[in-house]
Design brief:
α7 links the parallel β5 and β6. It contains 14 helices and 12 strands. It has a 7-stranded mixed sheet, sandwiched between helices. Helices cover 37% and strands 14% of the residues. The N and C termini lie far apart (57 Å). α1 runs antiparallel to α2, α5 packs parallel to α6 and α12 packs across α14. The longest helix has 20 residues. The protein is globular. It is α/β, with parallel strands linked by helices and 384 residues long.
Length: 384
Amino acid sequence: MSHSKPGFATRAIHAGQSPDPVTGAVNVPIYASSTYVQEEIGHHKGYEYSRVSNPTRTALEQNLAALEGGASGHVFGSGMAAITALCTMMKTGDHVVCSDNMYGGTTRLFNQVLVNYGLEFTYVDTSVAENVKRALRPQTKLVHIETPTNPMMGLTDIRAVADICHAHKVDLSVDNTFMSPYFQQPIALGADIVMHSTTKFLNGHSDGLGGVLIGTRPEHAETFAFVQKCTGGILSPFECWLLLRGVKTLPVRMHQHDENGRAVATWLSQQKKVQKVFYPGLADHPQHALACKQMTGFGSMISFDLGSQDAANRLLKSVTLCALAESLGGVETLISHPATMTHAAIGVEGRRKLGITDGLVRISVGIEDVQDILADLEQALAKV
């Protein structure tokens, strides 16, 4: 039986990671070297200085590009550093169209930092592809979407938006952090660039920050590598090694996250004290059909509304297994309050427009025994 491309799990474990030629080590070593000896003027072994490139980083970048089906990968010190690098493709006067319901930190970067350099941003509900088309201008260089969105779990039809972008010669970048390449392949659906906060599901163990941009064209590789070299916001060899280690188990972890996520979402939707559950895997999610079409799983990110901040606080104060903390995508269950944590920066009016109420709770369901997660939520909900 022969087939051309290895399967996802095989790529997660092997892409970019040949055994070390010197020792036969199965894992790529942590190359903790800032510089590399050169044999003579202009003659080296492919590495000169670790800000420019490092062998541990090269292995990781090849690995992540292979998982997303892209041409090149470029890792940065955090997800925000990756988005900042993405925006260096633009110059004063250029225009970006983006999801109106994005991670609060992205909005903060755009509205409070990048506008100072003359970039313009228009926020639209990208779940209606026509809104993207209407927002395009001659100066538009990029459309940036998150799907599902954080924390309202709204979906955008990647294929439909990609078709609009390409008809107008605009690049589409997709933040694929919530689904990971295991459940969603934006490049296969027409995206030009994929971005992740690797801190989340890709690393998977809540022990390292990082970000990645995966490009599809030679000019992406050139631009992003140049930005890494010029601005220096790169990922350290140790963090690269942690991420390589995390990605090896991505398929088995995502499978379990998904199984647990479905069980928790179903249970929450049956609780009287829970007013509404936002999860693409539930049949009553307005875009459930799209979820089934463009994702191969529903993942473990769920938001649910308890009706008031007091109710949310009682639940969050009472959980014992679930950890009240920012972030997501770790093996442990993490639970948070978007209005005061991840989305505090967008203000009361900004949250109201997006439907982020004071009673909204976001949970990143971990891979513990699901009965234990449910038991913890049940005892905490009893105190609401």
